[in-house]
């Protein structure tokens, strides 16, 4: 896969520079009363899960332009995920999507063992029809007017739990595309009642140590109304279902300019924040690489998470959810994992005591300056040092390119011809 010697050789040429940069940053931080080693320890402990579906080239509803060496199935996807983790030491787990990743649990476990990866939340899919499926989700799934269609969707979610159970996952994320395209097409209230009723049946099938995440999204594929459209509805769902139900925040699923960090703070306050799908967006649910458009917003989300990290019971599933259309997906996921980790470390060096003082004194200017001081700090030496100490790459993209991994797998994996639209 990725040879240990290659990483060592790549790191050897960068070690001296890293040491110098790390020492310089350490001295600067020390003047601010910050211990660089404590931050490096936090960077080492941080992990974000990779979405199995992110390893293949994505697409829009207009076209998909596959690259070389596209993964043939879940086993290839897990190999690619292992490369990302090997080079970054930041992505120890993978989130699976069923039925896209359906395979014998024993084989999944075997592959996980071989690659050293674990499994994060399972994702169900009742937003597409599968070839062998008796009933269509064209007009909805868990909220469909037809009881048998709802039952089929419930059954699918229960199957996801069953597979997840066999491979050590502890959560199920439910996102549905249900909604409507025309005013009047559906009863907004009865459709939600049907959804809740179906979700209660899924909830009843959760093992004791599992959680269920409800993921909201403002629109798409339904273009007039969506059943789980925002965090208010998501919170209602989690509250009505019970303690094991929490909300998942996908950064791309909000109206433009929505204050996502506030949503984060509110959901933590309610004990209902379960996890994230990290990505970035400019217009809608663009699924762009994390931190490419609004790195300050990503930082502000982490600022809330770090401020509230000692909240009792807080247990967040950090996951990426992106679509890579024009890059090598492995490279995008490597960069994104590092950007998410960067936001976390930047947020970790906010001078919280000073910030609280400025807040109490209503010194808005200095409070904002305190955040900016953290956001502007180049923490790359901390991230790189954490990687180097873990045997990962100081410059993961450079090491990946030097490895020739993509060309190697392209020899085994058949070329995929360009296709029509599709999300993965
Ligand atoms: C919906 C979504 C959801 C799906 C994934 C493929 O837009 O964010 O998480 O499971 O994309
Ligand atoms: Mn998502
Ligand atoms: Mn999405």
Automatic annotation (TrEMBL):
<keyword id="KW-0479">Metal-binding</keyword>
<keyword id="KW-0464">Manganese</keyword>
<dbReference type="InterPro" id="IPR050337">
    <property type="entry name" value="L-rhamnose_isomerase"/>
</dbReference>
<feature type="domain" description="Xylose isomerase-like TIM barrel">
    <location>
        <begin position="93"/>
        <end position="287"/>
    </location>
</feature>
<protein>
    <submittedName>
        <fullName>L-rhamnose catabolism isomerase</fullName>
    </submittedName>
</protein>
<dbReference type="GO" id="GO:0016853">
    <property type="term" value="F:isomerase activity"/>
</dbReference>
<dbReference type="InterPro" id="IPR036237">
    <property type="entry name" value="Xyl_isomerase-like_sf"/>
</dbReference>
<dbReference type="InterPro" id="IPR013022">
    <property type="entry name" value="Xyl_isomerase-like_TIM-brl"/>
</dbReference>
<keyword id="KW-0413">Isomerase</keyword>
<dbReference type="Pfam" id="PF01261">
    <property type="entry name" value="AP_endonuc_2"/>
</dbReference>
<dbReference type="InterPro" id="IPR013451">
    <property type="entry name" value="L_rhamnose_iso"/>
</dbReference>
